Amino acid sequence: MGTTASNPAQECFDEYNEATRDLPFKHLFKFTMVGPARAGKSHLLARLAQLRHRPESDSELAERPSSPEEHDYSSTIGMEFSTCIVLPETSHSCKLQVWEIASSFQRSDSALSYLSPTYNTLIVFDLTCRESLAHVTDVLLPYLRQSNSIVVSNAVLIGNKPDLHAKSAVTPEEANEMAQELAGYYEVCAADLSSTRALFSELARRVLRKNGVEVDSLVKAARTG
Fold first, then answer.
1. pLDDT at residue 169, as a whole number
2. N or C: which end of the chain has fewer CB within 10 A?
3. What is the SS3 string spanning the chain?
4. Measured between alpha carbons, how far is 5 from 27 in angstroms, rounded to an integer?
5. CA separation for the pair 206, 9 (Å, rounded)
6. Taking Cα atoms as reference points, which of 216, 168, 219, 215 lies closest to residue 189?
């Protein structure tokens, strides 16, 4: 009797789900991260892995600029997965399941099931690289439009490395203009844990608001009650 071949992606999924299985949450949201190579997707996923063990806020982390070295990361092969809990201070805490699809894998048949309205699509690009933005406009968006136009209208554009001001190659005006056909534009420093937490907390609020839940008032009540 032959042995069943292992599935690394499924094993990763099971491992991270196990890590947050006992943490309380009310909502479960699925996200897919796509974008050009070296845009920061893997770094964001690594920060989410840290948030699994620190769902509370990081008020003790001082704001500081990051160095270019802190933005270095290896490229993903195929797909990676992570999960975390956000908004634990509210009565609508959310568990986020986030799939990262490598740039070389994004136009494969296997990736199409993750580029669907079932998932909240995040398009990540590097603010310090014009080629990164060009890949989104010239390659990724045309492919997404052809595959499923609903995915494009619901997708969120995310600019990484806003802290590296001196190396910025994309203006906020350019990014916001490109995001006009999308659901919004956010910036994040993937080298910083608190910045990553703020981004995914806001993304969870955005999905909740789409479903008629006003989370901002819940957070205020939780802090003053």
1. 95
2. N
3. CCCCCCCHHHHHHHHHHHHCCCCCCCEEEEEEEECCCCCCHHHHHHHHHHHHHCCCCCCCCCCCCCCHHHHCCCCCCCEEEEEEEECCCCCCCEEEEEEEECHHHCCCHHHHCCCCCCCEEEEEEECCCHHHHHHHHHHHHHHHHHHCHHHHHHCEEEEECCCCHHHCCCCHHHHHHHHHHCCCEEEECCCCHHHHHHHHHHHHHHHHHHCCCCHHHHHHHHHHC
4. 33
5. 28
6. 168
- The pTM assigned to this predicted structure is 0.77
Tell me the two tokens of residue 169: 């190659």
Q: How far is CA 67 from CA 17, 64, 70, 72, 191, in A?
A: 32, 10, 5, 10, 9
* 92-104 per-residue burial string, b: 16 or more CB within 10 A, e: under 16: bbbbbbbbbbbbe
CB 128 within 8 A of CB 96: no
Q: Which tokens is 94 given? A: 């959310």
Task: Spell out, as residue ranges, where the chain has pLDDT lower than 70.
Answer: 1-23, 52-78, 104-112, 216-225
Strand partners, 98: 31, 82
**Closest of 217, 225, 183, 224 to residue 92, by C-alpha:** 217
The answer to whether 102 and 78 have CB atoms below 8 angstroms apart is yes
